[in-house]
Description:
The chain is of the alpha/beta class. It has helices at 5-15, 62-70, 86-97, 139-152, 171-184, 210-217, 232-245, 284-297, 302-316, 327-332; strands at 22-26, 28-41, 48-61, 76-83, 101-108, 114-121, 124-131, 158-162, 187-191, 205-206, 249-253, 259-263, 269-271.
Amino acid sequence: MPPDPLAARLQTLLDGFPDCRILVVGDLMLDEFIWGKVSRISPEAPVPIVHVTGESYYPGGAANVARNLKEFTGRVWLMGMAGCDAPGDRLLGLLQAAGIDTQGVLRHPAWPTTTKTRIVARNQQVVRVDRELAAPLGEAETARAIAQLDALAPAVDAIAVADYGKGFVTQALADRLGHIAREHGKILTVDPHPHTSLSFPGATAAKPNRLEAFLAAGLPPSEPVLPVLADQALLEAGRRLRQRWQTRNLLITLGEHGMLLFAGDAPPSHLPTRAQEVFDVSGAGDTALAVLTLGLAAGATPAEAAEMANRASGIAVGKLGTATVTRDELRADF
């Protein structure tokens, strides 16, 4: 069988990932998983009784993007806000143990660390409990964040923004990110939150999922149409978002239907899913953002970077929990 030129090209790009220097900016979270068994229903209410067998903690939100990046490169910086509380201490400890640079993480006594607790029994999520305070940064905190950004940005090749709508990413910070991208030739990728009106002028690529794309475009969500390139509502959402966000590239993740890429002046292209089995979609978007950013930083075309992100996401959803994808796993998929 003749060699596959695409696979060879992706291998070459992957070999360049360790040289990439990436800064992640966004909302930090602590993901807590409580594992257990269910044997009966509570006599107090029609809910299962979970007998706890273990607990696990992982960096979540923008911190999970950084965690995914760390699988491919040793040079990862993180910016965000954590509280002066026990979850914040645990989160910072996990990040530092992973070798992620946390000098850009601000801490505030009045800002509780966002914590998402998932109770899982028999590989099924029973309930999720969120503890958070979603509020925009004040002027003083925004000024501190911009100062940290200005200090860290010169040392990196690309900046990935993971906006979960918790308040760390403000328009003032987004404007500064866009300025840095334009003036200093930095790659800027964004996973935007649909319920904010933030714009990221100068962004290289934006990566919403299907529902986020419809909400951000101001369109009512619709049922998927197959084939994907015949889904006129989705295509219209993509066109509106490119115009609204003024981004050169737009990658819409579609779950089991793969991804839809709008790149430059090329017609939209569909990337079918690579997933063999889907156990848990937690954090799959973070994996996609991380690999998309790395691909672009390594010199990939938007289509090549999207292909790598698609393959990485297909691996991630086959794992339980907020999982990462390793370099060897991605290499084996080429």
